[in-house]
């Protein structure tokens, strides 16, 4: 009996290290690779997700098509409504600037309404209240980001309504001079004398000084004509007036004027100021009238000098 107990204790003592070694060996062995069943499950999950996305896209295609169709109808209606309103305002003899601003505002409002309707068809959660709420939350950030754009927009509307100048007027803004071709909401387009198109932001035109040179049907041109000391003042004034009457680009009414602008000291000469009026569009007429006046005046002066020289060389009449 004593021998059996000793044998059992020895067997238990040898069994514990063996179990410990087996556990250490199993823990030190690398992890077994994933089974093919796990890969199959992942592929099935990805395929199911792609299938659901494709089903959602196919289900949304009719809504997208209907939304595009609705927006296209609103776009066509906005163009037609803008044209109809412009024609109605023109028949009532409204100014062209008012016609432009009201027709454009109507078109933008219809396009904005059509865009909201189209988005609500695709995403039913988008409503007018949600859009207004989003604008209220981000209005401050948008206002700072697009401050210049909004400033030009407001200035353009004020220019179109108050009408300090109109399309076709000749204006000067800073170093730019040209005829107003179009007054848009963001900028004003000027056509210069050398056929350049200048785009000026409306905020610059509304806040800075602008010279409206030709808002009417005629424009006065002023030229300076220096005279030498030996040139007769009265004869030169009469010659200049006669030349102005012969120029085709100079208007007869108001009458041209030739005035003494300055006298040099000790009779060394004088300066005449020549004033005359030209008609629209202004750029070409001013340049053509100036060129015609100087060319004819030079020719008339040469003829007068030749006639004076011929009279001086002619023999005196017999007595």
Descriptive tags:
alpha+beta; disordered N terminus; 8 strands; Alpha-Beta Plaits; rod-shaped; 5-stranded antiparallel sheet; 8 helices; 3-stranded antiparallel sheet; about 60% helix; SH3 type barrels; about 325 residues
Structural overview:
This protein is of the alpha+beta class. Among the domains are: 71 residues; 50 residues, Roll (SH3 type barrels), CATH 2.30.30; 86 residues, Alpha-Beta Plaits, CATH 3.30.70.100. The protein is 61% helix and 17% strand. The chain contains eight helices and eight strands. It has a five-stranded antiparallel β-sheet with strand order 4-3-2-1-5. Strands 6-8-7 form a three-stranded antiparallel β-sheet. Strand 2 and strand 3 form a beta hairpin. It is rod-shaped and about 140 Å long. The termini are far apart. The N terminus is likely disordered.
Which secondary structure elements does this structure contain, and how are they paired or packed?
Elements: H1 2-28, H2 36-91, H3 96-122, H4 128-145, H5 147-162, E1 170-173, E2 176-183, E3 187-191, E4 197-201, H6 202-207, E5 210-214, E6 219-228, H7 233-246, E7 257-263, E8 269-278, H8 283-313
Antiparallel strand pairs: 1-2, 1-5, 2-3, 3-4, 6-8, 7-8
Helix pairs in contact: 2-3, 3-5, 7-8
């Amino acid at each position: 009996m004593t021998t059996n107990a000793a044998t059992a204790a020895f067997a238990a003592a040898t069994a514990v290290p063996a179990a410990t070694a087996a556990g250490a060996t199993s823990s030190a062995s690398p992890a077994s690779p994933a089974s093919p069943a796990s890969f199959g499950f992942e592929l099935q999950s990805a395929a199911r997700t792609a299938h659901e996305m494709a089903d959602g896209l196919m289900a949304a295609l009719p809504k997208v098509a209907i939304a595009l169709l609705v927006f296209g109808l609103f776009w066509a209606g906005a163009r037609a409504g803008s044209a109809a309103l412009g024609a109605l305002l023109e028949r009532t003899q409204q100014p062209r600037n008012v016609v432009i601003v009201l027709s454009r505002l109507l078109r933008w409002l219809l396009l904005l309404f059509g865009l909201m309707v189209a988005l609500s068809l695709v995403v039913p959660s988008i409503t007018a209240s949600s859009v207004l709420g989003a604008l209220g939350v981000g209005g401050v950030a948008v206002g700072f980001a697009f401050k210049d754009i909004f400033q030009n927009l407001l200035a353009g509307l004020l220019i179109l309504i108050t009408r300090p100048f109109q399309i076709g007027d000749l204006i000067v803004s800073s170093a730019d001079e040209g005829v107003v071709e179009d007054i848009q909401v963001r900028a004003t387009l000027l056509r210069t004398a050398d056929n350049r198109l200048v785009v000026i932001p409306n905020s610059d035109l509304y806040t800075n000084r602008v010279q409206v040179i030709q808002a009417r049907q005629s424009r006065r041109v002023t030229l300076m004509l220096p005279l030498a000391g030996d040139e007769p003042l009265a004869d030169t004034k009469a010659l200049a007036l006669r030349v102005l009457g012969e120029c085709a680009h100079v208007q007869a009414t108001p009458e041209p004027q030739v005035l003494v602008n300055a006298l040099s000291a000790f009779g060394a000469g004088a300066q005449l100021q020549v004033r005359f009026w030209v008609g629209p569009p202004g750029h070409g007429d001013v340049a053509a009238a100036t060129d015609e006046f100087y060319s004819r005046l030079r020719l008339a002066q040469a003829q007068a000098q030749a006639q004076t020289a011929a009279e001086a060389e002619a023999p005196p009449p017999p007595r």
